[in-house]
Write a structure and sequence with these properties.
8-stranded mixed beta sheet, alpha/beta
């Protein structure tokens, strides 16, 4: 399986609280949740639905898993008009959670990966199939990139500057070159950029 990630971010790289104002969204004093709601046109919505439909399995960090389990895990397709493919995929396909603390997950089809994550994910990628997808899960996405486990990364960039909140990438961290695979902008100014990791960047020499 190809490991792909999809993350909604602001222009200043914030990924926290894109969907609303849950307690999780407000951690560390964050007050600007829900910045992605209503953004994106029908083509972007179709792109997201089609992405979820391609998933053979999902890999999530614990925080994103618990948010998804409390929402998508309790909704039926009738509860989410327009997003039925997302609900169907999340509730019928295998879900793997990278966590050393989660025990007895209630969401059907969930497996916890708690030991030797590199080997466990490599084993998943070696299975036949299309895509092993990561949604949200910022800490996990960073770790996967650092360990050269990501095959493709999609950023959905919402045209807003938040000025607060947890960012996808920290101020300091490892560097990474990216090859642009696909780029589109919708009628509401939301951009979708699909990248493949391409090793270390090249820097100017003295």
């Amino acid at each position: 399986m190809k490991l792909t990630t999809m993350t909604q971010v602001t222009i200043d790289g914030v990924m926290q609280g894109n969907g609303g104002a849950s307690d999780e969204d407000r951690r560390n004093g964050f007050e600007r949740g829900g910045w992605a709601l209503g953004k994106g046109d029908n083509e972007t919505h179709a792109f997201i639905n089609q992405t979820y439909q391609r998933a053979d399995a999902f890999l999530l960090g614990r925080r994103t898993y618990e948010l998804f389990a409390d929402s998508w895990g309790s909704w039926t397709v009738q509860d989410v008009p327009g997003w039925e493919p997302v609900a169907r995929a999340l509730n019928t396909r295998p879900k793997y959670v990278a966590s050393t603390t989660l025990a007895d997950p209630a969401w059907s089809g969930t497996t916890v990966l708690s030991d030797d994550l590199v080997t466990a994910i490599a084993d998943l990628k070696a299975k036949p199939g299309g895509e092993l997808q990561v949604h949200g899960s910022g800490a996990l996405t960073r770790w996967l990139l650092e360990n050269d486990l990501v095959d493709e990364m999609t950023l959905i960039v919402i045209p807003v500057i938040l000025g607060q909140g947890a960012r996808l990438f920290p101020e300091t961290g490892p560097d990474l070159a990216l090859d642009l695979v696909e780029s589109r902008v919708d009628s509401k100014g939301v951009t979708i950029q699909v990248y493949r990791p391409a090793g270390r960047p090249q820097y100017a020499t003295a």
